Amino acid sequence: MTRRAGATRIEIGMVVVILAILGAIAYPRFAGDGRRRAAYDARSTLERLRDAQDAFLSSHRRYAADLDTAGVSPPPTIHVTIGGAGLGTGTGWSAKAVSVDPPGIECTIGVGIDSLAAPAPADGHSRDGVVTCR
Predict the structure, then answer these.
(1) In terms of Cα–Cα distance, which of 72, 73, 84, 90 is closest to 108?
(2) Which class is domain 34-133?
(3) Which pTM value belongs to this model?
């Protein structure tokens, strides 16, 4: 009896069926990651902005009025706006990060006198420098 190398069509077909089943099981898990990823991107962008603003304040005695000056570049799916009454005086700032893909994710932060611009965290304590998302 001679041995043949390789796999039969049935064996290859079984592998394809098993991979299809595994893909069908895994797809729903990864399909919902878009919103989770957007929330993570928005939150981490504002946290990096908070750290950059602290460093900018230390050297310039005021807060940066835009992302380029602060040295922060968000992912392309996150739109960030910075504002606040205390930007020029170094007494506070606030920012909002909004996801454009997928839409509906919004995170805010407020520091100093502009800490009231951010919604209160769940524990009801200070809002100063806390990133909140909804």
Answers:
(1) 84
(2) alpha beta
(3) 0.72
